[in-house]
Specification:
Helices cover 26% and strands 21% of the residues. It is built from eleven helices and 15 strands. The strands form three sheets. The protein has an eight-stranded mixed β-sheet, with helices on both faces. A five-stranded mixed β-sheet has the order 8-7-2-3-15. Helix 2 packs across helix 8. The two termini are 21 Å apart.
């Protein structure tokens, strides 16, 4: 049973990103910075595993966490950076659904005005088993029952950006928002069928920024290296970013001809659950901030690198206080820190007060000793 969320703001130092990104007050930009839609999961995260249990055996581990997952990973990560995030999603009417709703709306500041609770529907659950700087997952999910009269139409709200999954046909609201000047960011999941259909890539005609991981990018483009995959995808979408996990990321902006490659943050990865979503959130923020392609990659890597140091899934995504404290421990060489000096102007003044005592959401992690 999930505990009650604390409802205390885990990132008390955050302020609306509009004030930092646009140089004006909260009325100087649309009501939302980012809008997204998708499935919210209840994530149960086992940590400290030596490996996966062979058939017929049992492994006892010392770490268990619970946190919102699925589309909540990136919604929380973006909200913690001060982006004004709106989410349209279904929530079950069970105890997991109540926990997920309260955590997102009241603890993490995500706008759920276009979300709905579904009577009689069980919340999706994913069990993540983290080991050897990677993870395997098992998911339970039932189809959402259609309400009388069919599923409700999602009116596209004013937003500077929206985020979609391109492994499904793009929702009509994404095209409507793009026509109004909204940037469309896209990602996708693993193709369980192994077909890696070219139809998926055809959807990139309606996407501005595409952020696949290396395995997905190479599978869809039938290439042998992440770099070759990035070049192939650059012919379909303006900006492509290929995430390489512990090896960093590469990106191509086909409109400007700009190319960038950066290494991952040199940190010990304890739990990579949701790191790709945290990376994407950092890239969205940096794009809206107007940073160069290399700086966008570095900021995304910074956010993802800070998140994997915690065993907590979505609730391990960094707040500005933790970003401000980056490098204070002396673990990162000065030569690496110098590459991140561009981040300083975006750190809220209040974050300096939390450097010594960074406030984090309680990820319900339990360790038996």
């Amino acid at each position: 049973m999930p505990p009650e969320p604390s409802l205390a703001d885990p990132c008390a130092e955050r302020e609306p990103a509009g004030e930092r990104l646009h140089g004006g007050g909260p009325d100087a930009s649309p009501a939302l910075d980012v809008f997204l839609s998708g499935r919210v999961f209840m994530d149960m995260i086992f940590t400290g595993l030596p490996g996966l249990p062979p058939p017929g055996t049992e492994i006892v581990t010392d770490g268990l966490g619970s946190a919102p997952g699925g589309v909540a990973n990136i919604a929380i990560a973006m909200s913690r950076l001060g982006l004004r995030v709106g989410l349209a999603a279904e929530f079950g009417d069970d105890m997991f659904g109540a926990y997920l709703w309260r955590t997102l709306a009241e603890q993490e500041g995500v706008d759920l005005g276009l979300s709905r609770r579904v009577p009689g529907w069980s919340s999706p659950v994913t069990v993540s088993m983290a080991y050897d700087s990677d993870r395997s997952m098992v998911t339970y999910s039932r189809p959402v029952p259609a309400p009388p009269g069919g599923p409700p139409e999602v009116p596209p709200p004013p937003a500077r950006a929206c985020f979609v999954d391109v492994d499904q046909p793009l929702p009509p609201w994404a095209a409507a928002m793009r026509e109004r000047g909204t940037l469309v960011f896209g990602d996708l999941g693993w193709d369980q069928t192994g077909a890696w259909s070219a139809e998926v890539l055809d959807r990139l005609d309606h996407v501005d920024v595409f952020l696949p991981n290396a395995a997905e990018a190479m599978a869809y483009t039938r290439t042998d290296t992440p770099a070759d995959a990035a070049e192939a995808l650059a012919g379909r979408v303006r900006v492509v970013v290929v995430k390489r996990g512990g090896d960093g990321a590469i990106a191509v902006d086909s409109a400007t001809g700009e190319r960038a490659e950066v290494s991952a943050l040199p940190v010990e990865a304890l739990d990579p659950t949701g790191a790709g979503d945290v990376f994407a959130a950092g890239f969205v923020f940096a794009t809206l901030a107007g940073l160069s392609l290399a700086e966008r990659l570095r900021f995304a890597n910074l956010c993802a690198g800070l998140s994997v140091r915690h065993r907590s899934g979505s609730l391990g995504s960094p707040c500005w206080g933790e970003i401000a404290a980056f490098g204070e421990s002396g673990d990162v060489p000065d030569t690496v820190l110098a590459d991140y000096a561009f981040v300083i102007p975006f750190i809220p003044a209040a974050a300096d007060e939390t450097v010594e005592t960074v406030v984090r959401a309680e990820p319900t992690l339990r360790k038996e000793r």
